[in-house]
Fold this protein.
Amino acid sequence: MTERSCLAIILAAGEGTRMRSQTPKVLHEIARRPMIGHVLKAAEAADVARRAVVVGHGAETVAKAVTAFDPAAAVFEQTERLGTAHAVRAASPAVTDDLDDVVILYGDVPLVTSDTVARLRAGLAAGADLVVLGFEAQDPSGYGRLVMEDRALVAIREEREASDAERAITLCNSGMLAVRAGRLLPLLEAIGNDNAKGEYYLTDAIAIARQEGLVVSVEITAEAELMGVNDRAQLAAAEAAFQASARQRLLASGVTLQVPDTVIISADTVIEPDAVIEPHVVFGPGVKVGTGAAIHAFSHLEGAVVEAGASIGPYARLRPGSVVREKGKIGNFVETKNTEVGVGAKINHLSYVGDASVGAGANIGAGTITCNYDGVSKFRTVIGEGAFIGSNSALVAPVTIGDTAYVGTGSVITDDVPAASLAIARGRQVVKPDRSPIAARGEKPKPA
Ligand code: UD1
Ligand code: CA
């Protein structure tokens, strides 16, 4: 990759009133990651070592979220909304002498890829002073138009200032660009606000650069990648586009998705080749699935690791901190949380296992509950290797069941069970001959 040092300036000051939300626009999520997080990741993946975010509306909330997601990112505030060039200028303290490249990105254009960012940078490496990212618009209205002469970009004209001829142009400005770092601040200085909106337009940098004899070039990308999010419908459209491409990526990498459109993926989901994902599976954040694992229909996973060859569901819920080791089995209507399930261990039916470790090869019977919470604190349950927990048992934590120990069905276990022991903790059965109240009424079973 390139040796050039790069800063990304990401504009995220927008109000987003059309979202009708208490949450600042760039913090709305796509695939369970805030939009601004997608943009930060794309920059990082294009070897952009330094990242600066310009915040405005909801500054404090956005700044906090940015720092939590990317501690290395710097945050600057644009206190007045005076245009895109003015917003970039807010980040000028980050534009230091040692930088080679600066790329300008937008926090509400979340699907931009690292490839595209890398292409903009490659334009600079190839000798351009300024590289503009353009696209062929289905409907160009509202966008700045790229005015080309002899295949060179001479200016970007905002729609409000465009002539009729210029409005007919369909090659549009994405707003994103890359600029040789040393050129940025002088260009920003030269931009005025003598235009229809009275704003400092970053797009004016192009005509100024041309006048100064700088080299300006254009990179083109697909319009779909430049989808901007201003309302909930556009958020849903961006989500759908992200999901569609994430599914295609998984399929291409060797993962089976039986009905791809029904599987919901998070931005950080990792699934190894030869895993099989049945319909209607939801992957929340922080899930890793190993090779050959099967995730059966209608399962919901979040913050969970499923190792090679393990089997989950149908109808299983793995909550954060769940780790299912190789060939482990989690069956229907089983919930796990903060629990390690050892190699080949089984929890096949109707159980809640939380704050526990289950040893390799152990078998947890149907309806087993770890009683991990006393209303105030949480406690751990430790189940040894090869142990057997009979159906409908309650394991009252803190409690330890030793290796190869056996718990009788229906037990309420409150004390530790040593290795290799049998524990039965339930009322003894009483049988009273001829005392069935049905029999006492003299009723006979009726044929159906
Ligand atoms: C801008 C471009 C236009 C391009 C279009 C692509 C300019 C002058 N025009 O137009 O050529 O086709 O984007 O969508 O750049 N922002 C701030 N602070 C400000 C003003 C804007 O942070 O003071 C942010 C906005 O939150 C938004 C982005 O910059 O994320 C673009 O601003 P917006 O006002 O939407 O520009 P457009 O008129 O759409
Ligand atoms: Ca816009």
Remarks:
- The CA atoms of residues 247 and 260 lie 6 Å apart.
